[in-house]
């Protein structure tokens, strides 16, 4: 579980860093496209973390597996991933430079941020469960 | 924050993940691959690159949504 927590923390930090990278240079040239690519690559990394979490067995009471997936958080994470991907795809014409931005980039970033928050909730739940299981 | 600063941050994050390196081969390979792909972006990113990334994201999302 620590590994998953680590990668989720890493991915969350990456998204915020990428949001900064994207906001700064967006608008004119190849740098804008590079920033867009970084955002997309970061979301792709986040998706891999979601996939790994999604392949864990569901948590049960009493616990049958130490490393498991909270059904409630998994639903929230999966929904957030769907919304983030939809927002990114909606921003695709802006990202490839064929259409001017009318708020699509910001909406995509907000959706990615929502996904990181959902992952953060999952991480906190996993840490809480970890503490309970290892308590004497 | 520039793209280069983002790459530096990513490198720092990688250095701070000893537990992942010891216990999560799959995850560290994932991070390393993303890092390598980001470094590749020193060349100009084309519209085809963006399109390929979007296709990858769409395909991965379909896999995620198909999980029960």
Question: What is this structure's SSE topology?
Answer:
The complex is a heterodimer of chains A (136) and B (68).
Chain A: H1 2-23, H2 30-54, H3 71-90, H4 92-95, H5 104-134
Chain B: H1 3-15, H2 18-23, H3 25-40, H4 47-66
Order of helices and strands of chain B, N to C?
HHHH
Tell me how many strands of chain A there are: 0
Global Rg of chain A = 17 Å
Cα-atom radius of gyration of chain B = 15 Å
Q: Kindly identify the CATH topology of chain A.
A: Four Helix Bundle (Hemerythrin (Met), subunit A)
Distance from first to last alpha carbon of chain A: 19 Å
The biggest sheet of chain A amounts to: none
Q: How many domains, in number, for the residues of chain A?
A: 1
Percentage beta strand of chain A:
under 5%
Number of strands of chain B: 0
The oligomeric status of these chains comes to heterodimer
Estimated helix fraction of chain B:
over 70%
Task: Specify the overall morphology of chain A.
Answer: elongated
Determine and state the CATH class of chain A: Mainly Alpha
**Average pLDDT figure of chain A:** 76
Can you describe what's shown?
The complex is a heterodimer of chains A (136) and B (68). With 136 residues, chain A is an all-alpha fold. Chain A has a single domain (2-134), classed as Four Helix Bundle (Hemerythrin (Met), subunit A), CATH 1.20.120. Chain A is built from five helices and no strands. The longest helix of chain A is centred in the last third of the chain and has 31 residues, at 104-134. Chain B is mostly helical. In chain B, helix 1 (3-15) packs antiparallel against helix 3. Helix content of chain B is 81%, strand content 0%. Chain B has one domain. Chain B has helices at 3-15, 18-23, 25-40, 47-66. Chain B is flat. Mean pLDDT of chain B is 68; it is low at 16-23. Classes of the chains: A mainly alpha (136), B mainly alpha (68). At the A-B interface, helix 1, helix 2 and helix 3 of A face helix 1, helix 2, helix 3 and helix 4 of B.
């Amino acid at each position: 579980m620590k590994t998953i927590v680590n990668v989720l923390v890493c991915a969350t930090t990456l998204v915020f860093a990428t949001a900064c990278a994207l906001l700064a240079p967006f608008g004119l040239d190849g740098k804008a496209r590079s920033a867009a690519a970084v955002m997309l690559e970061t979301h792709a990394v986040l998706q891999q973390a979601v996939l790994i979490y999604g392949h864990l067995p569901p948590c049960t009471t009493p616990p049958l597996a130490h490393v498991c997936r909270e059904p409630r958080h998994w639903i929230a994470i999966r929904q957030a991933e769907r919304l983030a991907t939809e927002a990114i795809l909606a921003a695709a014409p802006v990202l490839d430079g064929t259409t001017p931005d009318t708020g699509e980039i910001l909406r995509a970033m907000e959706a990615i941020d929502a996904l990181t928050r959902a992952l953060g909730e999952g991480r906190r739940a996993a840490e809480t469960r970890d503490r309970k299981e290892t308590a004497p | 924050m520039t793209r280069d600063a983002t790459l530096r941050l990513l490198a720092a994050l990688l250095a701070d993940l000893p537990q992942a390196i010891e216990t999560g081969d799959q995850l560290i390979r994932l991070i390393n691959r993303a890092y390598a792909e980001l470094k590749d972006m020193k060349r100009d990113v084309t519209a085809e690159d963006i399109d390929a990334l979007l296709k990858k994201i769409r395909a991965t999302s379909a896999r995620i949504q198909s999980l029960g």
